[in-house]
Specification:
Blueprint lengths: L15 H15 L6 E2 L11 H14 L15 H12 L11 E4 L2 H7 L10 E5 L3 H9 L15 E4 L17 E5 L11 H13 L3 E5 L21 H4 E6 H5 L7 E4 L5 E3 L5 E3 H12 L5 H9 L3 H27 L4 E3 L5 E5 L6 H12 L1 E2 L1 E2 L10 E5 L4 H12 L4
Parallel strand pairs: 1-13, 3-4, 3-5, 5-6, 6-7
Antiparallel strand pairs: 2-8, 7-8, 9-10, 11-12, 12-15, 14-15
Bound molecules: D-malate.
D-malate binds next to loops.
Length: about 400
């Protein structure tokens, strides 16, 4: 008889965005004529930039001819894209990343979920609270969390982030082996300062911890002196793994392409104290479990780094940033307390009248037919908040703010 991995039984309910989708489906069924505006999951609405479409079309043509057809590609990604990333994302920042430190994947979600496989089950993880649920759920599956009691996992170190600490968590006071940080942050839409990230790198070095730095929303940064890559911080190459994505940067949520950077200096120990670099371990893991991102998609991602690609994708980011401004300023004008939305596509809204997150979510859905994401779905300190995304169309963004104005809280 096959036994199950019982760690999976420790997962709380359904995955957050699936739960919301089910709730919205039920609402739509009960109200078939409802004109629902979806500002919940961070899914883009603008089409792919023309230069990306052209590159992918050309790649499709190549796949249709015997001379240029390609079968399996390298599991780590084609050199042309790895080099474009090194030259386009890191060299301009004065950062030296070698091509074999870049691993192309089908999404930052997969990478941040899978990376924990390299670590032993007794490692202690620290996550911010609230947090992108994938960091936690993947470690629940990996057996590092224990069973949750009232939604809290006893073996996890939670780092509360809120307006009280300016969304900059304190360092853990207990032993931690792996820290997850996301800046610009999902869900709060806030950023960690360069100075604070430098302190985190020092903390990781002093405590022999590995930092998982999720930088999927880097393209939305506009505040000066905010790091675009963790490797802008001295010493980060020794302790940090960086995750980036084309999903939000270039509208690839449905196209799927991302990458992880694992510098060769990042190591972790065996129980007997022998150090091993994580780069070859990840390389081995990917070669075994992953057959690479389609050639066509990687050619599309490569086009992001051309002059036109930069211009066209930046124009799309500017569009979403303007949506964020409309939501943020619109809600502030109603007297609501709002965070984020400047360096990120997410707006973190305090529920009025001490309402809880799901009640606020229900009011928006029922009274304004707006889908949002309840803050409590991101962790206990998200309770009393709601996340809205700026990835909707301009028209729907404006309509959503107008509808919220008519709600009687
Ligand atoms: C979100 O809404 O938090 C993101 O779109 C989820 C993701 O990127 O997987």
């Amino acid at each position: 008889m096959a036994n199950i991995n019982e760690n999976h039984l420790n997962l709380k309910g359904t995955y957050l965005f699936v739960r919301i989708a089910e709730k919205v489906k039920d609402y739509q069924k009960a109200h078939p004529d409802a004109d629902i505006i979806r500002l919940g999951i961070g899914d883009v609405t603008l089409p792919l930039a023309p230069v990306i479409v052209d590159a992918m079309t050309k790649a499709v043509q190549e796949m249709g001819k015997a001379e240029t057809f390609r079968g399996y590609g390298p599991e780590q990604g084609y050199d042309f894209l790895r080099q474009a990333i090194v030259d386009g994302d890191y060299k301009p920042l004065g950062i030296n990343i070698a091509m074999d430190e870049v691993f192309i994947s089908d999404g930052a979600k997969s990478d941040v979920a899978n990376i924990q496989e390299l670590f032993s089950e007794d490692n202690v993880i620290a996550i911010t609270d609230p947090v992108y649920p994938v960091y936690l759920d993947s470690n629940v599956m990996g057996g590092r969390t224990g069973e949750s009691v009232d939604g809290i996992f006893p073996k996890v170190v939670y780092l509360p982030t809120s307006a009280e600490n300016n969304f900059s968590p304190e360092f853990p006071s207990e032993r931690v082996d792996i820290v997850y940080l996301c800046s610009p942050n999902n869900p709060t839409g806030t950023v960690l300062s360069r100075a604070r990230l430098a302190e985190w790198i020092k903390w990781c070095k002093d405590n022999d911890a590995v930092l998982m730095f999720d930088s999927a929303y880097e393209a939305f940064i506009s505040t000066e002196d905010t790091v675009h890559s963790i490797y802008e911080i001295e010493g980060a190459r020794e302790v940090a793994i960086e995750f980036r994505s084309f999903s939000k940067t270039a509208g690839f949520t449905g196209t799927r392409c991302a990458y992880a950077v694992i510098p060769k200096e990042v190591t972790a120990k065996t129980k007997s104290g022998e150090r091993h670099p994580l780069n070859p371990m990840w390389n081995r893991r990917q070669a075994t479990k992953f057959n690479g991102v389609p050639y066509i998609v990687q050619r599309g991602a490569e086009a992001v780094y051309t002059k036109e690609g930069r211009e066209q994708t930046r124009a799309n980011i500017a569009y979403y940033k303007e949506n964020a401004r409309i939501i943020k300023e619109g809600l502030e004008a109603l007297g609501l307390t709002v965070y984020g939305g400047v360096d990120a596509p997410y707006i973190w809204v305090k529920a009025p009248n001490n309402m809880n997150s799901w009640d606020f979510f229900d009011i928006l859905l029922e009274q304004a037919q707006i889908v949002s994401t309840p803050g409590s779905g991101f962790g206990p300190h998200g309770e009393g908040y709601l996340r809205m995304t700026s990835f909707g169309t301009r028209e729907n963004t404006i309509r959503a703010v107008e509808r919220i104005k008519n709600i009687k809280f």
